[in-house]
Amino acid sequence: MIEFNRPTVVGSEITYITQAMQNNKISGDGEFTQKCHKWFEQRLKCKKVLLTPSCTHALEMAALLLDIKEGDEIIMPSYTFVSTANAFVLRGAKIVFIDINPLTMNIDETKIEPAITNRTKAIIPVHYAGVACEMDTIMEIAHRHNIYVIEDAAQGMLSSYKGRELGTIGHLGAYSFHETKNYTSAGEGGLLIINDEQFLQRAQIIREKGTNRSAFFKGLVDKYSWVDIGSSYLLSDLSAAYLWAQLLKVNTLNDTRTSLWDKYKEELQELEETGDVKLPFIPLNATHNAHIFYIKVALTKRPELIKHLKNNGVESVFHYVPLHSSEAGKCFGVFHGKDIHTTKESESLIRLPMHYGLTQKNVIEICKLIKEYFDAK
Question: pTM for the full model?
């Protein structure tokens, strides 16, 4: 069986986890948390980063930092994971879904401005498959209307837009280190990226259960106390140690995935030329991290092809069911404008296996099976 996903393991994770245990500091903000923070701040050139237990938690922190309240409106694509919406619904916000660009599966920036009202508080661009949204346009719209931009870059570590790392362009950004991502922190984990100085101090308070404990340990106050709302948004240092091992191998991991992605593209190019499939589109102003390789096929063919691959030992899956069509989506949100592309494109997409344990031979085998399916039609 060729697995759809296999969590990344580089081989030195246990070594660093053992070191964390020997430090007698396995809760948050230990040695390896600090190492990871420094690595990201230098790599991303942002104001501050904070490791969190998940990308969901990073988005929840963003909602708290923006003081999202009941009646506020948040604009985002419907084609995204539920956490993108949930983080803001938890604060009482109404979600305003808009259509996607069918080329990239990202939010259609031309549909944003008509959806803005005097209640709009933020725009959440989601960089699907680690491919950048049209951030210059989005930031210009946000600036003119005095609203915030939070980049959901859960899939976007090491991807860029016009030379800038995803997650560093909006006011805030978020990464995921879930086991399905390119880099993982022992199964779950996330990162809040702070690009606007106004959020620096309060972010550390919210992350520490609403206390100024961080300032206390830095010697800035003589005791710490409860000063704001917050929760326990710290990642275990054991998980940070696991992530640290992978950050040290970041180029190797990225190069391996990119070569696999390129092989898929090469092998399936002829099927795109015959019109049997559509392959991922990468804008000229973007670089991607090979997080996902997907194909789009006719709706009637998707279940057949997934079954054909499964019967031949290959796991493949479809991806998000658009949020606006879900029970909770109808309750907490509204789709602005027409759903021209979101549902149609989501129903044609198949994700193929993509992980560090995959080989070029595996990719060739998968592509051969896909070609066999279409040859038989």
Answer: 0.97
| Digit-coded pLDDT (tens) for 83-131 | 999 999 999 999 999 999 999 999 999 999 999 999 999 999 999 999 9
Q: How many CB atoms neighbour CB 211 within 10 A?
A: 18
In one-letter notation, the amino acid at residue 342 is T
Please tell me the distance from the alpha carbon of residue 297 to that of residue 87, in angstroms, as a whole number. Answer: 32
13-247 under CATH 2.40.300.10, yes or no: no
Enter the tokens of residue 201: 């101090």
Q: Which of 6, 37, 39 is nearest to 250 (CA)?
A: 39
Report how far Cα 52 is from the mean position of its chain's Cα atoms. 14
Phi-psi region of 73 (alpha: psi -120 to 50; beta: other; left: phi over 0): beta
Q: What are the backbone angles phi and psi of residue 165, rounded to the nearest 5°?
A: -65, 140
* Partner residues linked to 2 by β-bridges: 314
pLDDT digits 0-9 by tens, 225-281: 999 999 999 999 999 999 999 999 999 999 999 999 999 999 999 999 999 999 999
| Whether the Cβ atoms of residue 190 and residue 56 lie closer than 8 Å to each other | yes
CA–CA separation, 361 and 105 (whole Å)? 29
Question: Measured between alpha carbons, how far is 268 from 266 in angstroms, rounded to an integer?
Answer: 6
Euclidean distance between CA atoms 318 and 61, whole angstroms:
29
- 250-375 has which CATH code? 3.90.1150.10
Let me know: does 174 contact 58? Beta carbons within 8 Å: yes
Q: Where are the domains of the chain?
A: 13-247, 250-375
Characterise 105 by phi-psi region: left (phi > 0), alpha (psi -120 to 50), beta (else). Answer: left
Residue 71 carries which DSSP code?
T
Instruction: Give the closest residue to 158 by CA, choosing from 125, 181, 126.
Output: 181
